[in-house]
Design brief:
This protein has 278 residues and is mainly α. The chain has nine helices and no strands. α1 packs antiparallel against α2 and α1 runs parallel beside α5.
Length: 278
């Protein structure tokens, strides 16, 4: 039975089908041919929800993400030289696995920590895009651009998503929204910094023009999405009628997933391909 699919579900499906494979290649793991079947299972689960089979269709997608995260985390602790770059890589995979877990929770009609289904669905989308995609871009920057600035970005990638999650949870539990506001501000600052790097890279005329224009478009979408997210985090101090979840999940979500996510990953894919050939 095909039911109405909310926009946050569309964003998760887009991320699973389009963004995750691009990001995994940038994280040095090429998805096998059968990955498409797992992503299709997740999409099928969303399309038939609330049928009882929905979470079971999405479960293999979650298991792959969790398995990769655990495997790479153990490799880092046992076999690989420990570095911020490799730690950011493991965190990127972990954010993907977390997003997949929240998607399965939604399809299983389970609300972790008492959040309503809308927030559960938005959290799945948030970890796929703001978590996985943004951290993947920072991983690529750490690999290609050494220096103190990218090191700071790497540290922020490790702290940003967990702090935002803690802030939202504390607000949900009735605590003052101070932590949520500060954590969202930190995360928005990280996003603005990544957008700034891509704008800087746009001026490097030795790089492929297609990659540079993708970075420009992705940076502009990320800046716009960051402004909307910051305004939402400050809703208790400066309430604006238009800044609400129904509007943000369409505008903020689309700007981040399609605008920043696809354009940025595609641009870095083009650039890293050329750099590896030279």
């Amino acid at each position: 039975m095909f039911l109405y699919v909310p926009w946050e579900a569309v964003l998760v499906m887009f991320a699973a089908v389009v963004l995750v494979p691009k990001g995994l290649r940038l994280l040095d793991w090429s998805p096998p041919f059968w990955y498409g079947g797992l992503a299709a299972g997740l999409c099928g689960g969303y399309l038939i929800f609330p049928h009882p089979a929905a979470p079971w269709l999405a479960l293999p997608y979650l298991l792959l993400a969790a398995w990769l995260t655990v495997q790479e985390g153990l490799n880092l602790m046992v076999y690989k030289p420990f570095s911020l770059q490799e730690l950011v890589r493991v965190f990127a995979l972990g954010y993907w696995a977390t997003g997949a877990a929240w998607a399965v929770c939604l399809l299983a009609d389970f609300q972790p920590l008492g959040f309503d289904p809308l927030i559960v669905g938005l959290t799945a989308a948030h970890f796929h895009v703001a978590g996985f995609v943004l951290t993947t871009v920072i991983y690529v920057l750490l690999r290609l651009r050494t220096g103190w600035f990218t090191q700071i970005l790497g540290g922020m990638a490790l702290l940003g998503m967990p702090l935002v999650a803690v802030g939202i949870t504390l607000t949900k539990w009735g605590y003052p929204p101070t932590v949520e506001g500060w954590s969202a501000g930190l995360f928005a600052g990280m996003a603005m910094a990544v957008a700034g790097v891509q704008l800087w890279e746009f001026n490097r005329r030795t790089l492929p023009w297609a990659a540079r224009w993708c970075w420009l478009g992705g940076a502009m979408c990320l800046l716009a999405g960051g402004v909307l997210a910051s305004l939402y985090a400050l809703r208790f101090q400066w309430p604006l009628p238009w800044i609400n979840i129904p509007n943000l999940k369409i505008w903020h979500g689309t700007l981040n997933a399609v605008g920043f996510g696809w354009l940025s990953l595609h641009g870095w894919q083009i650039a890293t391909t050329q750099i590896s050939k030279t």
